[in-house]
Amino acid sequence: MTAVLKINEELNGIELYFDNKPGNETLTHLKSNGFRYSGFKKCWWSKRTNESLEVANDITKNKITYIETADRNEKVKKNDFNLWNATQWEPFEVNKEQDVKLISKEIKKHLTQRFPGFKFSVRTGGNNMYSSINIEIKKTPYEKKSVYLSAVREYCETVLNHYRHCYSAADAYTDYAGSYNFYGNVSIDWEYKQTEPTEDIKTDCEMYDLKSEEKANEEKLKKDAEFKQYLEEQERRNKEYQRTQLEESEKVEEITSSIEIKELDEEQQYFVMNSQFANLNKNCTLTEYKNEVEKGDYSNEDVKITKEIHFNNADAYENF
User: Fold this and answer.
1) Looking at the DSSP assignment, which residues form a beta bridge with residue 6?
2) What is d(CA 16, CA 38) in angstroms, rounded to the nearest whole number?
3) At what angle do helices 147-163 and 199-257 cross, to 10 degrees?
4) How far apart are CA 40 and CA 193, in angstroms?
5) Are 162 and 114 in contact (CB under 8 A)?
6) How many other C-beta atoms are found inside a 10 Å radius of the C-beta of residue 312?
7) d(C-alpha 94, C-alpha 308), whole Å
8) Is 28 left (phi over 0), alpha (psi -120 to 50) or beta?
9) What is the spatial distance between Cα 178 and Cα 189, in angstroms, rounded to a whole number?
10) Which of 108, 101, 205 lies closest to 151 in space, CA to CA?
11) CB of 80 within 8 A of CB of 106?
12) Among candidates 28, 23, 6, 26, which has minimal Cα distance to 15?
């Protein structure tokens, strides 16, 4: 078995071509080091890094060649379409108050320019009660159930929603439907046609897969970091709660050990006239009682004092 390493300058990648199917040990070595098989180009490929190049050189014994994209003296029409870039949403200024037919023309122009060679149908409809704009994807180089076509459809939905304006929101309690400048949806035409994918399109699909994987990894790392931050915050809160609980228990213990309840004899008992009683219960704090009294929500009561609490510690009294 022989293998040839090709450096693809245009895609910043390295490609390994084998004359026979590699052995299991070689396949395991390639996969564990991030290499993937391309059914289109019949090669094992990876993004060019020092590590991947070292793995490839070890297999091919430094047999390095370069991929020539075109003869310098030959004029070649280059397809610079990039599906990943084309399906990444970037908001732009639009006029949502204009006529629906003008909106549909703008949407059709935008999609045609963004996806050259693709075919879209943007139709208006509706009646006196409402207007509609419906987008149909009629022709692209992608299979009907592929992730690539799904990405194009998702972008079309985003564009459609970007032009939509809500005049009044729906109300679930009254069954009142929302009011919009138009309604509509995006669909795949039932007579959808897939054009023959060129080598450029196939390569672009591979790059889309790579970008999707990179984005998924970035999102995973972001979520992991957010979850770690959440756990750290929870741990901080738990420690703070435990600290305050300990302080509270120490204060309660100090209060309990620093008071003396004095039972008053009948001739020592006395009244406090017109005491202001807030309309609260005994579980409320003194601050809450004071706030209610300041708002005027209280009643006047005459209170007979039969017991007194004496503190022998000023700090205990303050804590109380």
Assistant:
1) 15, 65
2) 10
3) 70
4) 21
5) no
6) 10
7) 76
8) alpha
9) 28
10) 205
11) no
12) 6
pLDDT at 175: 63
Tell me the pLDDT of the chain averaged across its residues: 87
Neighbours of 79 (CB within 10 A): 14
Place of tokens 């149909």: 136
Instruction: Report the distance separating Cα 86 and Cα 89, nearest Å.
Output: 8
Nearest 5°: phi and psi at 313? Answer: -145, 120
Integer angstrom CA distances of residue 63 from 11, 16, 166, 172: 20, 10, 63, 68
Q: Compute the C-alpha angle 55/59/62, nearest 5°.
A: 90
The 3 state secondary structure assigned to 272-304 is EEEEEEECCCCCCCHHHHHHHHHCCCEEEEEEE
The widest CA-to-CA distance across the chain, in whole angstroms, is 121
Kind plus residue range of the DSSP H or E element containing 243: helix 199-257
Residue 78: band (very low, low, confident or very high) from pLDDT cuts 50, 70, 90: very low
**Residue 212 near residue 147, CB atoms below 8 Å:** yes
- 35 burial (CB, 10 Å; 0-12 / 13-18 / 19+) is buried
The closest of 130, 186, 132, 138 to 158, measured between CA atoms, is 186
In this prediction, residue 6 has a pLDDT band, given cuts at 50, 70 and 90, of: confident
Res 128 pLDDT > 80? no
Rounded CA separation 48/66 (Å): 13
Cα gap 186→153, rounded to integer Å: 7
10 Å Cβ neighbour count for 298? Answer: 16
Q: Which amino acid is located at 153 in the chain?
A: R
pTM tops 0.70, yes or no: no
- CA–CA separation, 117 vs 160, rounded Å? 20
